Each structure stands twice: as structure tokens, then as C-alpha cells.
Amino acid sequence: MTRFLALGDSYTIGEAVAPGDRWPALLAQRLHLDEPEIVAKTGWTTDELSAAIDAARPQGPFDLVSLLIGVNDQYRGRGAESYRPGFVSLLDRAVAFAGDASRRVVVVSIPDWGVTPFAADRDRAHVAAQIDAYNRVNREEADRAGAHYADVTAVSREAASQPDLTAADGLHPSADQYRRWVEIILPEARLALAAH
User: Over 176-194, what HEC string results?
Assistant: First the structure.
């Protein structure tokens, strides 16, 4: 039994898509893993995810752990450096869930919601700059910890010219976009699973 724990927010729980179209479910299918255990909810910040982990109490060790968190910290106006401590704490917890093996953890970059119809009245360049700053933080910390990193942000930005990459709610990725993410995450997940 190969166990996969996915930690995150709306992007991990797959807001606005069917459960089978969530990227953790699609990834598990591609890797022939058991159904992923998901601790994620739309709107969660780093601190809210941490509290939810306390409540859910996932029982490790897991063979693969993913972490994608931070967009709601950014949306609520928190600076990238204020995001760092909460992210580091969650990454430490992810590593612990992976049996203290950081190479079994995959950090996924934050997509850019600024390109979506939802953000039509926002300063899209400002959102993009903030997302980039957040992703610099999570990449630096993933590298420091020795975790894998999958950058899906560029694909998310293609939604600006490809409406089919956005779900019907005008904000979240569509199933098509999540399938594109899986192609990026898959090689890192395979390396993570090989790190036994």
C-alpha cells in the first residue's frame, strides 16, 4: 500500500471540479497509488491549514506528501516574508509525515489567480509580482529542506488566453488545467517515491 498525503487549500481540494479531477486524485491514478488522503479546504491560509492538520491528525509515515499553500495569505494582504515562517512550519510537518524523509515531499508552486475573470478589477501585475515573491519563498525553503519542487505557475498564467483552463466559477483551475499540472508534478513525485 503506497500512501499519499496532500496538504493545501482550494487548489488541492479541487474547488469547482469533480473529486476525480482534483490534481492529487489524477496524480494518484497515474502513479497507481491508493486514494490520496487530503487535508485541504478552500480559503485556508498557512495557519488555518496547520490548525486543520492538528484536527485531522493524519497518521504517517506516508510514501509521498505534497504541500501547496499560500495563495490565501497573499489574498489577505500578508507580505511574502510574513508567509515564510508559516510555510516553513508546514514544510517541517510535511517532512515529518513523510517519515522524516524530505525527498518524499513535493512542494507545488502557487498559481496566479490574477489572470482569471475573478480578478478583472484587480491590479493583475501587482498580484503576479506578489505570487512570484511567495513562490521565491516556497522554492527557497523547499530547496533548503531537500524537498522536490513543481512549478505550475507558468501553466496557470496560460489561462489568461485559454479560457478552458479556468473552471466555471471564473477563479479556480479547470480539470484541463489540473491535468497539465499533473504532467509537471509527475516527474517530481516519481523521484520522491523512489527515495526510499
Answer: HHHHHHHHHHHHHHHHHHC
